[in-house]
Structures are given as structure tokens and as C-alpha cells.
Amino acid sequence: MSVVDDEQPLFEPSLDIKRDLNRVVSRYLFNNGIFSGSKTYDDAPNPCLRMEGYGSFGLPLSDREVKDMEVFAARADSGVEVGDGGLTVAGDKVHVDNPRFDAYVKDTVGPALNALVFGPKVKRFDVNYRLRSLSIRGSSSGFSLWSHETVSEDSQYGTLCIILPSRHVGGRIHTTHQGVTRTFETASDDAARLTALAWYTGVSHNLESIQSGHIVCLCYELAGDPLLLDLRDTPRLPQLDQASARLRHIFRSWQHHLKDTRRRNGTVAAPQFLVCLLDHTYSDGPHKISALKSSDKLKLEQLEPWAKEYGFDLHFSSVEYAEWWRRRENDPYGSLGGFPGPEYAADYESNYGAEDESHQSESDSSDDDSGPEIMLSFKNVRTLEGIPMQMTGRVIDSLHEEDDPTSCFINDNADWDSCLVPEELWDGVTAQTHKFSAVVISPQKSRDIGFIFKDITFALGNLSVLSKAPTSPKDKKILAVLLQWLKNANSNTSVTCREVAAFLRGCADRWRDIPLLRDILCIELMGADGLVRSYQTFGWSELNGLYTGILSTTPSHELRVRFIKDLLTTAKAQNDTTVTAWCQVQRELMLNTATTLKIVDIDWILDLVEAKENPDVFLYSVVIPRLQAIQLCNVGFWDAFLSRLAKQPRHIPMIHTCIADMADRMSPWTMPPLPSTGKTVDQQVVDAIISFLRLGIRFSCFDTCMRLLDRMWKTFPPEATVYYPLLVPEVDGLLLQIPKGNECLEIFFLRTTSLLEPSSAMSLDAFRIFRIALIRSGKWAIRSLSKSLTPERVNDIAKNSGIMKRLISLVCHTLPRLAKSAEATEMLDNIKQLCLVAKINAFSPRSLMPQDGLRKVGGNSGIELLELCFDMDLLAEAGQALDRFLVAPPANDALYIEHGLIPLLKELPHFLYTHHSSLKCTPFSTFAADVITKFVRYVLPPKPSHTIPSAELEATGCQCTWCTKRLVPFMLNTEESLRVTTCSIHHVEDRLKRTKKWDFTWKRNDIHDGLLTIYKPPHMVENAKWLQNQKKGRDVLRLLGDEEHQRQILGSDYQWVVGTIEGTARPPTVPLSTRANGVGAKRQSESMSTQQSKKPRLL
Predict the structure, then answer these.
(1) Left (φ > 0), alpha (ψ -120 to 50) or beta: where does 946 sit?
(2) How confident is the prediction for the chain on average, in pLDDT?
(3) Residue 675's CB: how many other CB atoms inside 10 A?
(4) Which residues contact 155 (CB under 8 A, 6 or more apart)?
(5) CA 580 to chain centre
(6) d(CA 636, CA 985)
(7) Which of 986, 976, 993 is closest to 1010 using CA atoms?
(8) pLDDT tens digits, residue range 207-218?
(9) Is residue 718 predicted with pLDDT exceeding 70?
(10) What does the pLDDT average to over 23-46?
(11) Which residues contact 453 (CB under 8 A, 6 or more apart)?
């Protein structure tokens, strides 16, 4: 602290620092930054002005009226003052005859200008509007509207000027205060517009020259009611002289109380810090004084000198004051909005204080009703210069424990309502947060509160302008703080740390400061380019030892490689052989100490080889053995490395030797998996094996690849079973690159088929792999499949229709190409027969019937099975398939025949025609006869006792439209009644009389004569059903062809079938006779004798 030496002893020090400082800030340093303002109105009433001795005059003023007024003003008793280029009439000589105009001024114009210019204090009292003068200014004016700027009384605070409607050009009004000028337009295109202006008392104004026309202005004094006004609430311009003296006394008293520990008792209120709330809120908090608005800037300009003089610090901050409480019923403060700030406590106590017994009992019984929870927080703390800081200290930590944390606030003019952010956190719990911008006033070197460095942005900006090493204490402190922050940083790889290190390296280069460079020397922080730039700045002699130590301690291999590469490039460009040799030595050390290498390392490895006097010897004897020791199984690396070597033909023999050596030394099942996103570990191991095979094929090392595959089988571990299915499609893709007829590959695939024997549990993907392996097995494929497909296994496979279908396709279409011998052909035929028999045995007759009442979409499953018999050229099994079709599901004889067998029989003639056969051929004729006879026996109902031919029923109607479309169809269908609405009701009844012999009846509607209902007797319904079934039977019989074909196929049953359909015969009571052209009596008797013992039933 520095206090002037000749300062007088403190007299009557302030005993309440907060109260006195709040008074000065609120009353002497309050101003909203606006000292004048203007508004325009288009709806103002005419004032109807009248001048004593002259009379009334209209608006706008005409030139003639102005001349008349000038003549009147020349009279000695007129009371009109002539001067300032115009006329001025005293207020007591002017009368407003329209009372609505006075009301408009007090209710509309006055409140609007008061709120705009003089702020919220005016709301606290009633305003008196005293008319002081009427001013008329003409084209020669360049003066003021009102020359009487004296204050008539203490309650006066401003001036209101109303520019009445007029026609003029120019006449702008300039208001000036403390060197700031605000200008307002008075001219308008609208001759009826009224312009109102207001400014503080003490503000000077000037009227700009009027080019044409005249201005008519009413000037009012603005003052508060002296009987009701507290003069402390009167709006004033800042009184800086008084404020400065009071601030000096308050800060001096505060310093005195803090130093005099003996006087720290209950009679002296010397706070540890105070928070001066600013009049305006800034989004991220204020950063510097120059960014403040006028009233806030005024406060800081007055506070800062005396605070600094007496040892106090000022810091900007964003302050958040939050309250949470549980809402109570009938509690006006328990809902959102309207929180009045400091008055809340008093209002709350008056409404819910100790006198309210019910509330008191609730408070005692529940912790939730004990009052709001309060928290005060400080954010975005900065010095007045804008340096980011952080508040610390026990005073800050204990703020939330106080009953009223706002006790440290000063400035009564802070707008609590506009800073309020209410929210509903959850059901019944309400929060209200007040966000202010403020200045924290605290003593320097306080043990209770402190400020520490937080952000580096300011420090970087401050040091960036220095051309040499810091000399001032401030700059040295900033540099020390930056180095300490960098040392304590959590991560050397963070963006901020690298930016700070790069900045400090630039400073070290600019200042040529080796100690500073040593403090930040780290590859992770400075980067390779930063180290190279330092080499260019300081030279190698200064940095040799430092860089050697860095490389030995840096864990990042990539950073070391990049640094040496960049440094070597720079050294070669500068012809620095010392640094070039040092880089080569470091590269050889990296090769000897590396534990893993990447493809990007190949460049510098080959550069190291080329730098040797005998590069081939160094490559064969040192580099390749070292690379094999580091990563023998890293196929990707070897592929890239050998590809680079293959560009020179002299290395080809060495490449073959290297690949063979790798194949002999590596274990394929323990190769490290290749990293791959989205693949399993098993697939990654397979990828590694395939990658090596591709490597061998690429360099034409086919024998090496075959030896590896053979060794894979010989060293086959139990856990490697999962790899073979994954290897098959990958190896299959390599076949185009390997010479054909390689027996080793065929054996590999043959071994794979033994691991993938097909079964009903096999997935489609597994069968696809099995198919590939089987096909690639070559001459061993059919033998291997014949050995694995036993009848039991084939029957098991048939349970999975998808696998069975693909197996049959494999056997019928793919494997015949591999049958090169008679033995293989015979084995393949046996496989076909096994598959077909299993397919027939697994066939479900239910598949012939529609599912859920819907016909199956696609081909008939029975036809597909027969198609398979023809494709395999196994027609003997077709009869077995037809017998399988005749096995009906239990208790579904009639439905199965009608909806399963009949649709199959409909498609059978066309199917046989495409295969150059017909229904007359065995066994299809037998199947067709069985289906027809069973349809007639089980599906067609017996003929009713009384039937009427359809021709006789059709003869009932005439040839009219109604009979053809309504009556005749009703006679033939199975409907029991028919409602008729027709105008020719008599014609209908005439036709119905012909049906009386069949017991038809009809009845007219009692209400509507044109409505008729016809009723069909039950025996006629049965007759209609019989006629429909008779037609169905005839259609089925026609499936066999013409009568000759029908007789040939049905044989002795033809007469009975036709008679049953036509209603002239009855079904026999004994089994039908054996047909000579059927499958024989033997099959018939066997099926009948075994019918009871078998689960499926042969119809």
C-alpha cells in the first residue's frame, strides 16, 4: 500500500463500511448513461393554445400569424420577450384550452420520457409538470429553445420540451453533457406529428438553424412533489466531487479497521470483501473498464484510484445467487417469477412468520419447509486488465453456510427482477437464480480471500510483445506461472500444452534463451518441427547433449522417427555432416531397440541400409535377421518391405529365401491376428494365414505355400477346427493364382470336408463352405461324399429342407462333371437314389393342401417332387412318390382329396406332357384312378331322394333381365331366401306361381307394396347342393381326358364312377374290384392289410 506521506490523521472514521459505500455508489454514482432522449407521437390532441392579450392561434403557424405576433410583441405591455431569433412567452401568459392535451402530456408523454431518460427512480414519486414558456423560433434562429436553465427548487430534476406540429426544415436540437453530444431531429414530413424531448437539469442544449418555417415549443419543468418526495430519490447527474471525497474517506476507514485488530469488535463493521453489483449485466462478465457501459464505467473510474491507493484489489466477476425451496399451498412466493430481491425476506416473514402457528408447526415437522436453500457463486473472475483469475479462501468456501450471502452486496440500483432466471426443477421444487455482473472489492494480502492465476490467454498475449527476455517483475511472474502450469499439466499431449510449449519455444528462439529452452525441452510438447527450428536457431554445439538425452527418454517411437527424419533433412540441406552422422547412429540404435515396427518405418530402414558402404551385406546380415526377430508374423509389414526390395531384381533370390525361412519358422495356428474392425478373433487369425499365402503367391513361392498348408494339417490342434470353415472361401479365392492340378490343395479341401459333414443342424453358410471344399477336392470329391452319406445321415439331412435342396442340387448339377470314371458314376447314382428316397420319405402330404385357407404361392410341391424323379432319371421312384401322396393326414380324407390330390391331378397331365408321357402310363394311370374313385366316394354327397333337373328349374323364368339375373340363379344356388324390390311385382308373382309345385313361398311387405321376399324349401336347398357337386364331379372326371381315356384309366370302375356322378348308381358296400391296369392286387392288399398298423393312412 502506498499512502501519501502528508496525509492528515483519520477523523471520525466510517463505522459501517458496507452501508456508507453503498450510499455513495447508489446515490452519487448512479446514472443510466442517458442524459437526454426523444419520442414522437402521431395521435396527440390539439392543445388549442391561447396567448393573453393576443388570443388563440392555430397549428401549424402560418407566416402571417408569426408577423402578427411580432407586432404584438413590440407592445410594451405584451409580456412577450423578443430575442434569440424568436419569441418567448412566459408560462403564466400561455393557456392550454384543451384539457385533453394536459392529460395526454401527464399520462402518455411524460411517463414515457421519464422512463427513457431518468430511469426507475421516477416511479417512486409523483411528477409535477410546470409550463415555463412557449418558444417560437424562425428561420434566423441558431439559439436555445429556453434560456432559463436555473433550478427553481431542489425537487426539480429535468426539462420537457414538446415541439408542436409545424412545417419547418432544419432545427435539429443538440444536447451536451461532459463532452458528449446527442442530436435529435424535429422536422417531419407529417405536419400533425408531435415531438417530445427531455434532458436532465444542467444539460446544455442548442437549436440548429431553421432553414424555413417556424418551431413552436412548450417547455415544462419536471419536478417531484416536495411534500412527498425524498430528495435522495431525485434523479441527478453524478456528483463526482462529493463522491470522490466520500470514497477516499471510506477506503481509508476500511484500511484503518483492517490494520487495527484491537478495534475489530461489534461496533465496527469492516467486511473482508464487498461485491458491488453493476447496473448492467454482461453475457460473459466484464473483461476491462473500457468495455463497460456509461454508469458502470463511472463507478469503476471513481472506485479504482482510491481502492488502489489504500491497498484494495478490484476484480470483475459474474455473480449467481440461487435459491431452492419447496412450494407450499397459498404461498405467493412458492411459484415462479416475481421474486423481489432483498425485500423477499421481510415479505415472507410478514406472511409466514413466527405468528403463524400452522406454518410454524409445519416447519418444525418437516425439513423441507425450513426455508430456501441458498448458494452464491462467482464465475469469470478477472482483473481490471482482463487477466483470468480464480477466487479462493475460506470466506468464499463458507458463503453458502451463511443465512444471507447477499449481505456482501452493495448498489441499491441493481435490477433484481431483470436478472431473474426462474425454473421448475422437479415436482414441487422451485429455483430462482439471479445473475449479475459485479466488481469484487477485497483487501490485498488477505488471509481470508485471494485470487490466483487461472487462464494462460492473457499471459501469452502479454509475453508475445516482448522482444527480449522479461525484465519487469510482472512479466517474470507471468513467465514463471506459465512454466509452473506447464510442469503441473496433467497431459503433455493436450492441445493447450502443445500450444504453450510452442509459444515458449518461440520466445526462447526470439530471446536466444537456452535455459528457457531446457525447461520446456520435450518432443511430446515441442514436436519434431519445434526441435528442428531450435537447432536452426541455436546450432548443434548447444543442443547435442540435450537432443541425445531426449531420444533416450522419449517413449514415443513415432515421434523419434519423425524428429530424426526432419533433422536429417535439414542437416543435409545445410551440408552438416556431423548432424547427418548423428542421425544415422540414432536410427541404428532405434532398429536395435525397437519392439515393433510399422510400414511407415520402411523408408528410414532402407535409408539406413543405403547409407552403408556395403548395403547388401548390411541388409542380409543385420536388417533382415533383426526384422524377423522383431515381427516374424507381421505379414503386412513384410509384404510392403519385400515389395520395396523386389524393385531391384538382385534381391529376388533373397526374397524367396526369406519367405521360405519365415514359413518354416512360423506356426500358422499361433500367428498373431491382424487388427480389423468388426471381425472376430478367429477371422483375424484366418486373415493372417491368408495374408501370408498371398505373400508367397505374389512372389511365386508356390512350394512354400503348399508346405505351409500341409504343415497346418499335421499340426492341427483341437481348437483350430473353427478356422477351416473360414479358410475354405479364402483359399478358394487364391486358386486362380496357383498352378492347376496341385494335389496338395485338393488334399487340403478334402480334409476340410471331413470336418464339415452335412447334417440337419448345418447352417446354409456352413453348407456353402462344404460345397466349395467338396468341389475343390477334385477326384476325391464323389468318393468322400459317398463315404459320408449313409442312409441314416441322408434321412437326417432331409429334415432340413434348405440343406436337402442344396445337397440335391450339388449331386445333380455339379458333381456329374467330376465323375470321370465308371466307379465314380456308379457312386454318384447311389448318392442320387439315397437323396431321392430320403426326400420322398420326408415329404409331408400336408404340403399339398392350402395353408390357413390360402393356396400356396409357387409350384405344387408334389409336382416338384415328381420333377426331381425325372431330373435324376429315377422313374422307378415316381410310383413311391405317388404312393406317398395318397397318405392322407389323419381325419382329413375328404378335405385332403378335394384340396390336395385334385389340384395335383389337375397339374399332372401338363407335367407329363412336358416330359413326353401321359396319364395312361403306369404308375400315373393308377394314381389318377385312385384319386377319382376316392373323390367320388368320399367327397361327393349322396343324391337326395327327390331331385329336379337344372333345365326344369331354368325353365321357370322367362327371357327378361330380372328372371335371367335374379330368379333363375336363385333357383340353382343354395340361398334360402331372396328379397325383391321391383315395380313389376305382378310379373314376379306370375313367374313364382310356377314354383308352387316345389313348395316355394313368397310374401309381400305390409308397409311397402313393391317389396317381396321369396322363401326356398329345405329340399330345394339340398337339390341345389347336389347339382353343384354333380358339376364338380363332371369337371374332375374330364381331367382324365375323353370318354375313351376315362374308360382306359378307370377300367371296371368307370360305370360306377359315372353313375355316381350322374346320380344313377350307389357306392358299393364291398371294396372296389382290383383294376388290371393299376399297380396290382399286391399293392392294394398290402395297403389294406397294413392300414391299421401304420400311423399314416393310405386312402
Answers:
(1) beta
(2) 77
(3) 9
(4) 128, 223, 224, 225, 226, 229, 231, 234
(5) 53
(6) 97
(7) 986
(8) 888 888 888 999
(9) no
(10) 81
(11) 387, 388, 389, 390, 459, 481, 485
